[in-house]
Design brief:
single chain, about 750 residues, alpha+beta, 6-stranded mixed β-sheet, 5-stranded antiparallel β-sheet, 19 strands, about 55% helix, about 15% strand, disordered N terminus, disordered C terminus, binds adenosine-5'-triphosphate, nucleotide-binding, ABC transporter B family member 28, ABC_transporter-like_ATP-bd
Length: about 750
């Protein structure tokens, strides 16, 4: 953005404005923070080619253009507007005019002006940011994770099954379509019109009836087999892609939204095959419709138009039904989602409900939702009945027409009676096949909408490249290791000795200082609010640094940056002088242990939770016990009926706060990382638990570079260095005595006990 803006000449800015909307892409927060309230336009909608400055009117968040149309902007006047070209930084970060045509594109951090900008607007260059941040978030094309190419590749991997499925479909449909012909002949033979032995005809019919289910089984099993494999791969890819997004992505999307991608949305894609392999749907319907129409025109070109009318009418009725019911279906689905949400929320907060005596209120809210669900269900019922009856009316009209036209022809000797019987048989085949086909098309629309939702969420998020690279490397190392193990036919002992692993980052971190150099930071979800403004801290290797400061001063934010959940907006963090951005995030994660105020345990056994400290290798029972002993957790674990196999419940809810904390410390001990971050780890505990946890922490801190956000005077006092934060800057730095001697912010904090609790 900085480079881009500085590249704009003032002469360009002075031209008149004719466009209706103006688009600003990139991180405009820096400019806003200059208090000029002016930003540089780097993109223009429609015909405009001017680059101007103007006052920010509305923030639009990320702007998404699909097929050249603005898709997601909440501003009504922008929704659906075409963007023919975009002036600004393109996907490669270069300045230019980019034609968009019907392409899809994502512009993150966009701002939109109101129509018309002030004529006397001036250009204010934004403050410089460091090199690595320049184009990071400017403009990115949407990357479709699920696309036709991927699905085709996955399906074609199963060539043999696909060939068997298609052949079975062909043969099964042939059987189905030959049935009405045989019925006609059978009828003709019975009344003596056809001179053919009945026995021979029955054998043929028997063969067709026997083979049709065989081909059906082959077709269904192969198709489902292929699709299950495709779905397994898609599910895996979606999960993996979500997992490697930057932490900011998880600030933007609710957990429910993300899990529904993996459940509801992927299931609608799955259903497009699984629900459409039966005889009355999908591929079979299509094959039957095509086959029937062909046969009908051969059998009787005069009667075939009647059937065509039938086909078009049935398709039309079902299509109208689907369209009209769509909003009712949506309302029905929404009611069900609300019922589930309400029930989920009620049960999750049952203690709060009970303590407020809120049962009656919850029941009445639930009743309202259930009634809404019932009403939309009734509406759907009526629409369904209308669809069914109209379809029948059309079929009966077509049958009547066949009886009249066909009967007249048979009576006049212009048509064989068996042919008319076959025709009647095909009437039903065609009706059901057509209905099935339209239903399948509706399913297809649902599946495409699901694909689009998945692509929109994961395709427009920001993959954490460093994490992805690290994982890729690990995968290839694992793979190489597995191949080696396999070829040696021996079991590897893994990295059993050092949990941190033998990575260069870990080795460096045992001796190197960690430094925050002039760090500025704003959360991506609130780019306008600079939380850290030029932080400089040196965490000396093997020493303890205590971070104190009033609430909201940015202590936890520093922890988040050290954990590399976010990257600094400006400035850098180094380890032994090396910018940490050089290290893969998975390597960095191995070098840093975090123990939070509210540690999260997984819904597994205590032993498995402790072993999670080293998820990349096998952990022995002895190691787990050793870590638990050092964390003061062994005794309480032993006293539980199932010891280390005791399940801890969702997020560790079956343990007390102090017990959870000690399991988390044991996990961190097992991890044995050289850098340790303690975020108010003992502040929510009673004095007995606090003592136990603190003793465990003292063991954990030994020899590690520790940053502790502490409320306890003893921890702060004994720290090698105390850093006092105030409104995103370092207000004071020094030892306890040095800071007391200064009689500044720290002394105030100690005296007012705002931050430090005296024991
Ligand atoms: N994920 C987030 N997205 C946007 N803003 C955030 C986020 N997390 C924290 N903030 C904001 O950043 C500022 C600093 O918060 P931070 O949690 O770092 O303060 P703190 O000093 O740790 O406070 P406390 O002692 O109360 O925990 C606050 O104004 C907060 O609202």
């Amino acid at each position: 953005m900085a480079l881009l803006s500085s590249a704009l000449s003032t002469s360009t800015l002075s031209r008149g404005l004719s466009e209706k909307f103006i688009l600003v892409a990139g991180n405009a927060s820096a400019i806003q923070n200059s208090h000029r309230q002016t930003v540089v336009v780097i993109g223009t909608l429609s015909r405009g080619r001017n680059l101007r400055t103007f006052q920010i009117q509305k923030k639009c968040g990320a702007l998404e253009f699909r097929s050249g149309k603005c898709w997601n902007c909440k501003l009504e006047n922008l929704r659906g507007k075409s963007l023919r070209s975009f002036s600004g930084a393109g996907p490669d970060g270069r300045l230019g005019q980019y034609p968009l045509g019907r392409k899809s594109l994502l512009i993150s951090g966009a701002y939109i002006s109101a129509p018309g900008a002030p004529a006397d607007a001036q250009y204010y260059p934004p403050p410089e940011t460091s090199d690595h941040n320049k184009f990071e978030e400017t403009i990115r094309p949407r990357e479709n994770l699920i696309n036709a190419g991927l699905i085709a590749r996955l399906v074609l991997e199963e060539k043999q099954s696909l060939a068997i499925a298609l052949l079975s479909l062909l043969l099964g449909t042939t059987c189905t379509l030959s049935m009405p012909i045989f019925s006609g002949r059978f009828f003709e033979t019975l009344i003596g019109v056809r001179k053919q032995p009945l026995y021979g005809l029955l054998v043929k019919l028997f063969t067709v009836y026997l083979m049709e289910p065989v081909f059906t089984v082959l077709f269904v099993t192969r198709m489902i087999g292929i699709w299950e494999k495709v779905m397994k791969e898609l599910r895996f890819q979606v999960f993996q892609r979500v997992l490697i997004q930057k932490v900011a992505f998880f600030d933007e999307h609710k957990v429910g939204e993300l899990t529904s991608l993996l459940s509801t949305d992927l299931n609608s894609i799955k259903d497009i095959v699984n629900e459409n392999v039966s005889r009355d749907r999908g591929f079979r319907s299509l094959a039957e419709v095509l086959g029937t129409v062909g046969i009908l025109f051969v059998l009787s070109p005069e009667l075939a138009p009647v059937m065509s009318f039938l086909m078009i009418s049935v398709a039309g009725i079902v299509a109208i039904y689907k369209r009209t019911t769509m909003p009712v279906f949506k309302a029905h689905g929404l009611s069900m989602a609300r019922i589930s949400d309400l029930a989920g929320e009620t049960f999750a907060a049952i203690r709060t409900v009970r303590s407020f005596g809120g049962e009656r209120r919850q029941i009445s809210m639930f009743q309202n939702q259930v009634v809404a669900y019932q009403e939309s269900g009734n509406k759907l019922g009526w629409l369904k009945a209308a669809n069914e009856s109209w379809t029948r009316v059309v079929v009966y009209v077509a049958l009547m027409a066949l009886y009249i036209l066909g009967g007249t022809k048979v009576k006049a000797g212009k048509m064989a009676i068996g042919r008319l019987v076959s025709f009647i048989g095909y009437t039903f085949t065609l009706t059901f096949a057509m209905q099935g086909l339209v239903n399948t098309l509706a399913d297809l629309r649902g599946a495409l909408a699901a694909v689009d939702r998945i692509n929109t969420v994961v395709g427009t998020g920001k993959v954490d490249e460093s994490l992805a690279r690290g994982l890729e490397l690990e995968n290839s190392e694992d793979h190489a290791k597995l191949v080696r193990e396999d070829s040696n036919n021996s079991v590897s002992d893994g990295a059993a000795t050092s949990s941190c692993g033998q990575t260069a980052v870990c080795e460096l971190a045992w001796t190197g200082d960690v430094t925050l150099e002039d760090v500025y930071f704003a959360y991506p979800s609130r780019p306008d609010a600079m939380v850290l403004r030029g932080i400089n801290i040196v965490l000396k290797a093997g020493t303890v640094t205590a971070l104190v400061g009033s609430s909201g001063s940015g202590k936890s934010t520093i922890v988040q940056l050290l954990s590399r959940f976010y990257e600094p907006t400006k400035g850098r963090i180094t380890l032994a002088g090396e910018d940490v951005r050089k290290f893969d995030k998975s390597d960095w994660a191995r070098a840093v242990s975090i123990v939070n105020q509210e540690p999260v345990l997984f819904a597994m056994s205590i032993g498995e939770n402790i072993a999670y400290g080293a998820p990349y290798r096998e952990v022995s029972k002895e190691e787990i016990i050793e870590a638990a002993k050092a964390a003061n957790a062994h005794d309480f674990i032993q006293s539980l009926p199932e010891g280390y196999d005791t399940l801890v419940g969702e997020r560790g809810s079956l343990l007390s706060g102090g017990q959870r904390q000690r399991v988390a410390i044991a996990r961190a001990l097992l991890k044995n990382a050289p850098i340790l971050i303690l975020d108010e780890a003992t502040s929510s505990l009673d004095s007995v638990s606090e003592r136990l946890v603190q003793d465990a922490l003292d063991i954990l801190m030994k020899g590690r570079t520790t940053l502790v956000i502490a409320h306890r005077l003893s921890t702060v006092q004994s720290a090698n260095q105390i850093v006092v934060c105030g409104h995103g800057v370092v207000a004071e730095k020094g030892t306890h005595l040095e800071l007391l001697a200064k009689k500044g912010t720290y002394t105030n904090l100690v005296q007012t006990q705002t931050v430090v609790t005296v024991e």
